[in-house]
Design a protein that fits this description.
heterodimer, A: mainly beta, seven-stranded mixed beta sheet, four-stranded antiparallel beta sheet, 11 strands, B: six-stranded mixed beta sheet, globular
């Protein structure tokens, strides 16, 4: 059974840093690109970042470029999201998600974690 | 960057047909995926590649994509279909995933 479990969320002050983790199980982790998607309270889904199979390629939403870094450790079946210079508007539930195929782009998200809440507030 | 536009809300009576639209410039040239999200839950894929349905999703859910509009159609709507629905495409020019703003389906 495919499972994705996020951790690392919490309360952080504006300008602070936080690292989210997403532990994967039930599939060949190193075969799949992995993504982070966030959802501000009462708002819609917003894509954040993606990383390729070996961690050598990453793409980001314009709103987080230069502040967030996505990475992965295939030995630990885990994808990370390092968040720096956090802003109040980064407050959201952060989901990790797997695409349905081993290719690079255009695929749907077939599995999602339950999300980790990040609150940026003073 | 590419933009997908969805109506904020759609309301339909039980047993009727709901149509949720997702507008984008020449969206028919892209593959559109649809997700259902209920309160406090992660999104669930209900339609992928415009028209395909994952196993376990009722046949009442269908999709289409033509011109500048993709549509998610839910036939014989049930109370349990009440949720937020999001469309999703890949913007190859920007190397970014794009979601529509979401549509809240209310079953009257």
């Amino acid at each position: 059974e495919v499972q994705l479990e996020e951790s690392g969320g919490g309360l952080v002050q504006p300008g602070g840093s936080l690292r989210l983790s997403c532990a994967a199980s039930g599939f060949e982790f190193n075969f799949y690109w992995m993504h982070w998607v966030r959802q501000a309270p009462g708002k819609g889904l917003l894509w954040v970042a993606r990383v390729n199979r070996d961690g050598s390629i990453a793409n980001y939403a314009d709103s987080v470029k230069g502040r967030f870094t996505i990475s992965r450790d295939n030995a630990k079946n885990t994808v990370y999201l390092q968040m720096r210079s956090l802003r109040v508007e980064d407050t959201a539930v952060y989901f990790c998600a797997r695409v349905s195929d081993t290719g690079s782009s255009g695929f749907p998200f077939d599995y999602w974690g339950q999300g980790s809440l990040v609150t940026v507030s003073s | 960057s590419y933009v997908l536009l969805q109506p904020p809300s759609v309301a339909v009576a039980p047993g009727k047909t709901a149509r949720i639209t997702c507008g984008g410039d020449n969206v028919e040239a892209k593959s559109v995926h649809w997700y259902q999200q209920k309160p406090g839950q992660a999104p669930l894929l209900v339609i992928y590649y415009d028209t395909d349905r994952p196993s376990g999703i009722p046949e009442r859910f269908s999709g289409s994509n033509s011109g500048d509009m993709a549509t998610l159609t839910i036939s014989r709507v049930e109370v349990g279909d009440e949720a937020d629905y999001y469309c999703h495409v890949w913007d190859r020019d920007a190397d970014q995933v794009v979601f529509g703003g979401g549509t809240k389906l209310t079953v009257l």
